[in-house]
Amino acid sequence: MQLNLFAILLIIAFLISAALAAYFWTRRNNSTRSELLLLMLAITEGLYDGVLLINRKNKIIDFNQTASRLLSINNKDIGKPVGKVLIRYKKMLTLLNSGGNRKKTIKEIEIKERGLFLELRATRLVDSGDKDIGTIIILRDITDAKVAEQKLGESQTLLLNIIDFLPDATFAVDIDGKVIAWNRAMEKISGIKKKDMLGKGDYEYSIPLYGERRPMLVDYIIGDPAGIEDHYNFVEEERKNLAAELKVIHEGNEVHLWLAASPMLGSNNKIIGGVGSFRNITELKNIEKELRHISFHDSLTGLYNRAYFEEELKRLNKSRMLPLSIIIADLNGLKLVNDAFGHDMGDKLLKKASSIIKKSCRSEDIIGRWGGDEFSIVLHATGEKDTNEILDRIQTACGKARFKIPVSLSLGFATKINSRTKIETILKKAEDSMYRNKLISSKNVQNKIVDSLTRTLFDKKIETEISSEKVVLLSKRLGERLGLSANKMKELVLHSKLHDIGKVAVSEKVLKKKGSLDEEEWEKVKKHTEIGYRIANASTLLSSIAEYILSQHEWWDGSGYPRNLKGKEIPLISRIVAVVDSYEVMLNEKPYRKAFSHGEAMLELRRSSGKQFDPELVEEFFTVLKELYE
Prior knowledge:
- 48% of the residues lie in helices and 18% in strands.
- It is α+β, with helices and mostly antiparallel strands.
- It has four domains: 2-140, PAS domain (Beta-Lactamase), CATH 3.30.450; 147-286, Beta-Lactamase, CATH 3.30.450.20; 298-441, 2-Layer Sandwich (Alpha-Beta Plaits), CATH 3.30.70.270; 460-629, Hypothetical protein af1432.
- A six-stranded antiparallel β-sheet has the order 7-6-11-10-9-8. It has a five-stranded antiparallel β-sheet with strand order 2-1-5-4-3, with helices on both faces. The protein has a four-stranded antiparallel β-sheet with strand order 13-14-12-15, with helices on both faces.
- Strand 9 (241-250) and strand 10 (253-265) form a beta hairpin.
- The N and C termini lie far apart (139 Å).
- 32% of the residues are buried.
């Protein structure tokens, strides 16, 4: 279209030049306008552009209808000096006066009062001798284009203002990759001011982020997207927009970035630039990592949890890394520790056991907490021999561990050597193996736990071994005098040893306090019968005396604790040990009083007979003492 317009202008210029020559020739011969000039003017009437003819004396010769409309001139203005007719259009007059020797001058003017924008093309007309014979001015109405351009400019200004206040670090480049916007967040994160970055290209805007010149995501919007995967961890494309994640090292720290890039489109819907932004998502990534860790790890031990292990089992069904062994470990005595010392201590025992397992296994082994007191271990490319060595390391470490009770794990394992064998089958075999071993070692483990708790009583000086032995001896003698059965005698002996086992969970500070206990301290002490009851119930060796332990501090008159049992509601064995133990306690010095003499202790027993103690048992006990010491 530009070529056609240029051709038309050449034709018009030629015709006008010829016409003007004819015009001036006819004037010298007192003639009117030549027919050639009339023909030329007729041609210009049909043009979209305005045509204005001016002679060499700067007087208007003629114009077409478009020029008349655009410049608000009429036929009366023909022959008048152009300076007077167009006095309102100073820029146009400036164009005519500043043309000099230039054959063609182009200028844009705005007619504000009419809301018009015109493009003026002034061409000097010369004759064959290169003498000036006039000027032709072509006027084009470019109002629509200028308004569109202004709106585009306003939109771009608005866009740049919006970009400037975005919370994310954002910048924009033109189609040549030169920076046209650099917002405040970008200034802050890069340390480079907008004025120092605007107009910069050649990937200079990437240096603050990457420490080198390299394409950023926005460059793949305005250029060739090839190789984008080499620079970004993750790229997602939706229509013409790109999003990606990137990990960089900034000041020695690992930083995760989320980046986005979108094209800027011109009026013809072609890409004229791009907008890039990024956000520091390191904290979000850390939270995501933490959530992923939480979802697959046991919060107490830090080991993998059952959810992870079940997912792992699905994968193991397809594993070719044979032989593959699974170990199942069961922590012995957890319930007892929870009952005796509280769940906080039970948690510490679990942590201790998990630490032992981790230290005994290899770094590549997968260790998980399978259940409340169970652990599971997956050993890739590990046969029975190597698995047994790991079991031995675990058991040895348990034996060396220091805790309130012996740390003991019942272990079992199974090995997969055939790829066709389902992993669930191997897991079941490992569990069965563990339960068999637990059954075999159960009595031994419980004996060790009971011995450990008894030793704790002595270590805390709640009981002395000598005093404990005396209580057992005197209880036996009283039981024999009462004619108890052999089975009841066994229970009596066991109870006389462990009747205060619940005190292992009571603070030494409280137990050894000089002076009277306050209400809170006394409540703590009274809890020891319930704790002892739970400890006994948690052990098959002690379950037979659980009820006796719970009733140990009930009084004959019903004012004891914890259930206010009265008279013969209190088990006989509890009543026997209550009398014997009280006598032995009085003979020993306590932080809050001196030791009683034998006579004083007997007097105190008689005083409490029928109130705290069974009166018949008190009399029978006196007889036993008389037989032993007189």
